[in-house]
Amino acid sequence: MALVPRILSTWRSPRATVAGLRGMAEPSMLALLVGTMAVYFVAQWPGLARAAQLDPSVPLNARLGGALLGTLFLMPLVVLAVAGIVGLTARAAGLALTGAGSRLALIWALAATAPAMLLAGLVRGLIGPGPGLTLVQTVAGIAFVVFWAAGLQALSRGPGARRAS
After folding, report:
1. Helices 99-126 and 3-12, interaxial angle, to 10°?
2. CA gap 79, 163 in Å, rounded
3. pTM for the whole thing?
4. 136 with 116: CB under 8 angstroms?
5. What is the DSSP letter of 158?
6. Going by C-beta distance under 8 Å and a sequence separation of 6 or more, which residues neighbour residue 31?
7. In this predicted model, what pLDDT tens digit does every residue of 60-94 receive, in sequence order?
8. Radius of gyration, alpha carbons of the chain
9. Where does 6-163 show beta strands of DSSP type E?
10. CA dist 28 to 1, 3, 9, 99, 153, Å?
């Protein structure tokens, strides 16, 4: 199955979709993470353009440069560190979650939430702060948490999985 249909199926049944991704190769996960962060970077453009228009003291190129640094260079490191910590914590709690499973759950949750982040970027750029932006960001945040939890749950099961008692 291609990427976009899998993202759409994640919004319907996240646990089954992530379970179907079990065994994804590390280079594929890294490519998915970098691609997802590129989409997140693009999602910031409308809001950054609006901010540069409202406050010209910081030009758009400077804002884009900062967002590029943070999104494409620093966030992958943060994502991998968080996934490592969650994986170690899960194993300490007695769950059968591998490091690769922890990374996949987090990376896929970010990838599946990307459409909502694009929408949030458009709302931030076109409408600005307000109830609409708050609603879209809340939906995106809840979706991310649900997708990540479902992914961790799906990938901590399987052959040889132990249950914490």
Report:
1. 90
2. 26
3. 0.87
4. yes
5. S
6. none
7. 999 999 999 999 999 999 999 999 999 889 888 88
8. 17
9. none
10. 14, 12, 19, 15, 21
